[in-house]
Design brief:
The protein has helices spanning 12-23, 55-59, 76-89, 110-119, 143-149, 166-179, 194-205, 214-223, 228-243, 252-257, 264-270, and strands at 3-7, 27-32, 43-46, 64-68, 94-98, 124-130, 151-153, 160-161, 183-186, 192-193, 210-212. The chain has a 7-stranded parallel β-sheet, sandwiched between helices. The protein is built from 11 helices and 11 strands. By secondary structure, the chain is an alpha/beta fold. The two termini are 33 Å apart. It folds into 2 domains: 3-130, Rossmann fold; 134-163 and 188-246 and 262-271, UDP-galactose 4-epimerase, domain 1 (Alpha-Beta Complex), CATH 3.90.25. The longest helix is centred in the C-terminal third of the chain and has 16 residues, at 228-243. Strand 5, helix 4 and strand 6 (124-130) form a beta-alpha-beta unit.
Length: 271
């Protein structure tokens, strides 16, 4: 049986991956900053990339690793590089990296640099490139303004995005641990602009949710106390929607799992 280290296991995506892996019968170790916040159904150890002393214990005796960066982390290569090095030295045989949709076309993007670190590590790897999460609207960085102001603030213009659910990303991780393919783009079945998203959320919730401007988004982020470097990174990341990068639709998910990805309408009704 594979012994799998899942980093970032207490985050919204990490929790879904742990749940899926435990349900599939894998032997899971959760790497988290605070083990008290981990899933009680699997082993948990402290793993804080900013504190290298926690890395060696986390990777010890693991055969595979699911690696992800903290959300909106501009310093991802410096944080994840030591984890990759320690894991390969400890005998990890396969690394599944959660990257980002389209970064293979942006050589200076932090996650593209991390991709190269994994590719050059000398072990088997799978790079999963999911698009923006559907759950950003229910529990991520967009959720609070939807709940409190009935508004979506985002620097996306009329650009479209093929959002994907965390459940589907977790299913792709499970497939990657079994099949060990190289690089996969993960998207939902349709590309939607944020006005269409707001309309779907409005119809499902029974209240009117509006999509507002980039300037309003950045002002809202600042008003919530978000540090200025993160505000700038957020604006850069989401403005890629205007350029069209996230509108692509990949059939890779259905190919590797044998089922179609969840639609945004289905997600909104279950959220």
């Amino acid at each position: 049986m594979q012994r799998v280290l899942i980093t970032g296991a207490a985050g919204v995506l990490g929790k879904e991956i742990v749940k899926s892996a435990v349900g599939a019968g894998l032997e899971v170790r959760q790497g988290v900053r605070n083990p008290a916040k981990a899933n009680p159904k699997a082993e948990a150890v402290q793993l804080d990339c900013a504190h290298p002393s926690t890395i060696s214990l986390a990777v010890e005796a693991m055969s595979a690793m699911v690696l992800m960066a903290p959300p909106l982390e501009a310093n991802a290569p410096a944080l994840l590089g030591p984890v990759i090095t320690a894991a390969t030295a400890a005998g990890v045989q396969h690394v599944v990296l959660i990257s980002a949709f389209g970064v293979n076309h942006q050589e200076q993007a932090p996650m593209r640099i991390v991709e190269h670190l994994v590719i050059d590590a000398g072990v088997s790897y799978t790079i999963l490139r999911p698009n923006f999460f559907m759950e950003n609207f229910s529990e991520g960085f967009l959720a609070s303004t939807i709940r409190e102001q009935n508004a979506i603030y985002l620097a996306a213009g009329d650009g479209k995005t093929s959002f994907i659910s965390l459940e589907d990303i977790a299913a792709a991780v499970w497939a990657a641990l079994q099949q060990r393919f190289a690089a996969i783009g993960l998207t939902g079945p349709a590309a939607l602009d944020h006005s269409e998203v707001a309309k779907i959320i409005s119809e499902v919730s029974g209240r009117t949710v509006e999509f507002l401007t980039e300037q309003q988004m950045l002002a809202g982020a600042r008003s919530q106390g978000m540090p200025e470097p993160i505000v700038a990174y957020l604006g850069c990341s989401t403005s890629s929607c205007v350029l069209g990068t996230p509108r692509g639709i990949s059939g890779d998910f259905e190919t590797i799992t044998g089922r179609k990805p969840i639609t945004f309408e289905a997600f909104a009704r279950s959220a």
